[in-house]
Specification:
This protein is α/β, with parallel strands linked by helices. The chain has a domain of 36 residues. It is 28% helix and 22% strand. The protein has seven helices and twelve strands. Strands 1-2-3-4-5 form a five-stranded parallel beta sheet. α2 packs parallel to α3 and α5 runs antiparallel to α6. The longest helix is centred in the first third of the chain and has 10 residues. The two termini are 33 Å apart.
């Protein structure tokens, strides 16, 4: 459940739903450091789209990003399409949030499609050279899938084992299903991808059955 913690009655909402087992993620917010810290203290443990839709990290106003860096049980999502976040900032994030990053794509319906015009919530989206933007130039989401984002992370200089972990085990941990998802071991769901050294896909398995 996404919420901006500075909103009226947000604190009570966070306490209630986390008590019922819901993962609360802070998102699209102007929260300052104090508001973010309070939200983490009462149960929120996730950030949606780190660096996007929130104030940046400032040395006198650490904000949501600074609060999350301090709280070592907080997981953060990172759009790694090479458009939403600069490669240098992606590498910095992996150092600032070790083993806490969930790589995401933020993909919309144009994912995997050629350049052209598409639609998102009634708004026209133009995809050009892999970037999806509204008519006014605002980023509308991503045209990349998660596997492509993982490969981009590696190309930016993120160690391959950390990039793979951020696309598999860490997201599973963040929603508390790592007892069956996110790694290959006896008893887990046999959902995995076989790649070569260049990270090109050679096989896809779901439930132990090859599907591609």
């Amino acid at each position: 459940m996404d919420i901006a913690p500075e909103l009226e009655q947000a604190a009570g909402f966070i306490e209630k739903v986390t008590g019922e087992g819901t993962v609360v993620s802070l998102a699209h917010t102007d929260a300052d450091y104090a508001a973010a810290k309070e939200a983490f203290d009462i149960g929120a443990d996730h950030i949606t789209h780190l660096f996007n839709g929130m104030p940046g990290l400032h040395h006198r106003q650490p904000g949501l990003i600074g609060a999350a860096a301090e709280c070592e049980d907080v997981y953060v999502e990172l759009i790694c399409d090479g458009v939403h976040v600069h490669p240098a900032v992606i590498k910095m994030a992996f150092k600032l949030f070790p083993h806490r990053i969930c790589l995401i794509s933020d993909a919309i319906r144009c994912c995997g499609m050629p350049d052209g015009e598409y639609e998102l919530g009634g708004q026209k989206v133009v995809v050009k050279e892999g970037e999806a933007r509204l008519s006014d130039g605002t980023l509308a989401g991503s045209a990349a899938n998660l596997f492509e984002c993982m490969k981009k992370a590696v190309s930016f200089g993120v160690p391959v084992d950390e990039a793979i972990e951020a696309a598999s085990l860490i997201p599973a941990k963040s929603i508390k299903i790592d007892d069956r998802k996110g790694k290959i071991q006896e008893g887990n769901d046999a959902d995995f991808i076989i790649c070569d050294k260049e990270l090109d896909i050679k096989g896809v398995f779901k439930g132990g059955e090859r599907i591609s």
